[in-house]
Amino acid sequence: MPQVTFIEHNGTAHTVEAELGKSLMEAAVGNAVPGIDADCGGACACATCHVFVEPEWEAKTGARTEAESAMLNFAAEVKPNSRLSCQIPVTAELEGLVVRMPEGQH
Amino acid sequence: MNDAPFPTGQLESEPFSLPLDKLDPGQPLLFKNQEHYPYFARLRAEDPVHYTAESQFGPYWSITRYNDIMAVDSNNKVFSSAAELGGITIRDRRPEVRRESFIAMDAPRHDEQRKAVSPIVAPQNLAMMEVGIRERTIKVLESLPRGEMFNWVEKVSIELTTQMLATLFDFPFEDRRKLTYWSDVATADLAAGLVKSEEEREEILADCLTYFTRLWNERINADMRPDLISMMAHAEATRHMTPDQFLGNLILLIVGGNDTTRNSMSGGLWALSQNPDQYQKLIDNPALIDSMVPEIIRYQTPLSHMRRTALEDHEVGGKLIKKGDKVVMWYCSGNRDDSAIENPNAFIIDRKRPRQHLSFGFGIHRCVGNRLAEMQLKILWEEILKRFPKIEVHGTPKRVLSSFVHGIEELNVVIPA
Ligand code: HEM
Ligand code: FES
Fold first, then answer.
1. Domains and their CATH numbers in chain A
2. Ligand 2 atom with minimal separation from the A86 CA
């Protein structure tokens, strides 16, 4: 299982094992990483699983879908590297991935 | 003899014996009497995507299961919120009183306007507001009578949500009860009696517009400040609104932030009083407030539904919904769906995934104020637990006549001296 790291807004890092085929959001929630609320449970319908993907990883995590962009529109502090972690499938290629979290999910 | 399926004022009391095609779960009286739950239980089991051909609101579809609601709510390409198609409630607004606000708009206009007001509830702003909300909450709680009966709705729920709204709008504090009044007028069912006709409603709301227009004019020429009116007056997407659109957005924010939070403040106390084991659990471990707050919002479901209009033929749960059909997503039913939520009829303050509920909707219209509402409730319960060992509830709540706003008008309590 690839290891991925979530960095909270305050700088606290959480490195967890992410199960292949599940989403990055599920890796966070399943390992009780604070700061990923995921209210909708991965349906791309709440934008409370918002993360910033470190630039060197963008190619491997893929591009936003249209529905994802529509939801991200309303998240606070959206940046070009904003993604919804429930829309990022965990693959072997993501070994060592680092994502950061916004101040709050809303 | 009246041969209508449901003569006015009288309800079919046996939701399980009626022929399915006569089942009309949207009747306001069902909600006032809290008799709607078994109707939805039957629909979820037997006909989860249900068509009612005749009702006081005309023909409509009922979406009753959690997953189907999620699918409709997040499919805004097919399911429109547009005011000109009838809007977002089971009751179609008459064309001449249809008013625009972004909750009743589709993309892209919705997106622009929503972006203009959402920064006020961004995480940094919420953190700033927390201190003020706590001070006001403490003041209200400290002023409550001891050892005598009073209406919790009036003295706590309404007072606190109104003060909160006054803060958000930077509205003259001494006039704050006007906000509550306008909110009630905007949503009242005519049968409930607060307003007797649409004309009367419009007259009262015209006063609301006049009042706010004065504030707008003061603020559009002043420096930008972090209140909702200044934000709307200064944002490109909203500064050119017509008076009608301005009124629409005002009402949206007043109603959005008023009724819903108010009824969660009342509903939470009622739920705890009915579940003494949960109340004890809370007293023993106040840290559970964090998971209790979303549970209160799920359990109460302050808005029973949102409505959409189909823009094209589309299948949901095996039924073909036709272009132009009215589609009602019953959040109150999805929130009791045991295929999505374990033991959904129970009020449990320490659920593992308490935010897994439909009360705020999902998709691009998902409630802007959801974290603000949660924060208000969290502060309220923190401060209650610090000062009142017990609040005794007397009798049963008096409910609002509406299948949209799931509200409590009266909840009598005593705080022991
Ligand atoms: C417990 C309290 C609340 C509940 C249950 C609630 C519920 C809802 C629901 C169901 C929707 C529509 C979702 C949809 O169509 O999919 C909504 C939208 C909205 N709510 Fe709330 N709300 C609450 C508190 C608030 C507060 C405090 C505010 C004020 C800041 C607010 C402002 C809004 C606005 C502006 C919208 C329109 C969003 C849009 O169309 O994009 N709400 N709310
Ligand atoms: S979990 Fe809701 S959008 Fe990702």
1. 3-100 (3.10.20.30)
2. 4
